[in-house]
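Exercise 7. Given the encoded structure of a 294-residue chain, write a plausible sequence.
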């Protein structure tokens, strides 16, 4: 893959069917409730980010896997309809398509339980096999809903072929130093940042926390802070970028993915980090005003 003069984004990540359970209120421990509405929609953090990047104007190719089942067929067709190249998506007859079971309460907050399914097949070998046939690109976008070896391999290949590596450290988990080294940026929310820093929280300053993340190896770091905006740190220092006002929060599911996809697309089009974060904040603000992960 040649990255010269390309404005494309390669996404290495998960593809799920989202089963959304709309609840009338939050559930207490040990309680059984009946969902007011159930929907089945395209999802998966990788697929969501790929669609967001395409919606923001980038050419997007995706490496991932789905099962050879009706859900998998629907997920791939949806990605194609959204302008994402699916040539590197594996159709596996040995696993079902991944699923996310999402509860959403009236205030827009959510909980998510994942069934990885075919996403577990996106390993180091799968990424290495697909990489040479991908179109030219300038940005890699990945996340941790697939095996860690696949993400590490993608970051290494991005460095070898001149792509800018952007990785969302979600869901939070221990990661090797080689994965963090050179990420530009590392994307985390407040909880994921605290996990990486082995702290109870961000302390008095999100900017200081973003600066501390650079000590782990990334070239830049972005911590999303919900209605408080985002803290950004790179070689020029740390700063806080304000959030975009939201009239009403309907559903926070997928807001972080919208942020990541729009940010990656902006970087692929030559934006500096602050402008790319601004694009991400605008995309996230739009996302919370609608139901579903996209």
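Solution.
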């Amino acid at each position: 893959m040649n990255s010269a003069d390309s404005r494309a984004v390669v996404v290495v990540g998960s593809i799920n069917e989202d089963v959304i359970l709309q609840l009338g209120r939050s559930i207490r421990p040990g309680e059984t409730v009946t969902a007011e509405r159930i929907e089945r929609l395209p999802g998966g953090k990788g697929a969501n980010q790929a669609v967001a990047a395409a919606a923001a104007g980038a050419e997007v190719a995706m490496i991932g896997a789905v099962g050879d089942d009706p859900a998998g067929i629907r997920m791939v067709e949806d990605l194609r309809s959204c302008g994402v190249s699916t040539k590197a998506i594996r159709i596996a007859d040995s696993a079902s398509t991944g699923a996310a079971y999402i509860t959403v309460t009236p205030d827009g907050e959510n909980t998510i339980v994942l069934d990885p399914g075919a996403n577990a097949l996106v390993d180091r070998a799968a990424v290495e096999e697909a990489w040479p046939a991908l179109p030219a690109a300038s940005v890699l976008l990945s996340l941790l809903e697939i095996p860690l070896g696949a993400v590490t391999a993608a970051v290494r290949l991005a460095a070898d072929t001149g792509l800018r590596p952007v990785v969302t450290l979600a869901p939070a988990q221990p990661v090797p130093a080689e994965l963090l080294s050179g990420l530009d940026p590392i994307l985390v929310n407040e909880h994921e940042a605290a996990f990486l820093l082995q702290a109870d929280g961000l302390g008095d300053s999100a900017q200081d926390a973003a600066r501390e993340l650079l000590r782990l190896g990334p070239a830049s770091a972005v911590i999303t802070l919900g209605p408080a905006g985002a803290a950004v740190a790179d070689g020029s220092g740390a700063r806080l970028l304000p959030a975009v006002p939201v009239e009403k929060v309907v559903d926070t599911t997928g807001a972080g993915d919208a942020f990541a996809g729009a940010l990656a697309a902006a970087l692929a089009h030559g934006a500096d980090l602050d402008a790319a974060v601004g694009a991400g904040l605008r995309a996230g603000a739009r996302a919370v005003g609608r139901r579903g992960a996209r």
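Remark. Residues 8-15+44-96+119-287 form a domain with the UDP-N-acetylmuramoyl-L-alanine:D-glutamate ligase fold (CATH 3.40.1190.20). Students should compare their own answers with the one above.
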